[in-house]
Amino acid sequence: MKRFHIPHISARKLRFLGLPLVYTGVFELTVCYIGGWTDKNSLLLLGWFLIVAGSIGYVLLTKAASKY
After folding, report:
1. What is the pLDDT of residues 18-60, one digit of tens each?
2. Torsion angles phi and psi, residue 9, rounded to 5
3. Is residue 57 a contact partner of residue 20, using CB atoms and an 8 Å limit?
4. Which of 50, 63, 66, 41 is nearest to 17 (CA)?
5. Which pTM value belongs to this model?
6. Which residues contact residue 59 at a Cβ distance below 8 angstroms, ignoring those fewer than 6 apart?
7. Based on the number of CB atoms within 10 Å of its own CB, is 50 exposed (0-12), middle (13-18) or buried (19 or more)?
8. Of the candidates 14, 13, 5, 15, the residue with the CA atom closest to the CA atom of residue 66
9. From the DSSP assignment, how many helices (H) and strands (E) are in the chain?
């Protein structure tokens, strides 16, 4: 079976991914609310997922970079 090649994302680039995911999720939820698309679960779950993934990523990378 052929394996897919997943490109390596350097830790330097990954470090700056947490907060932009949170901001993107908040922006997406705001657009959904203003646009009146609050009955579309897929759009709301996408925004929720971006916020949660960004928050977890930010906390984990901040803890890993800390000396304490």
Report:
1. 899 999 999 999 999 999 988 989 999 999 999 999 998 888 8
2. -100, 120
3. no
4. 50
5. 0.75
6. 18
7. buried
8. 15
9. 3, 0
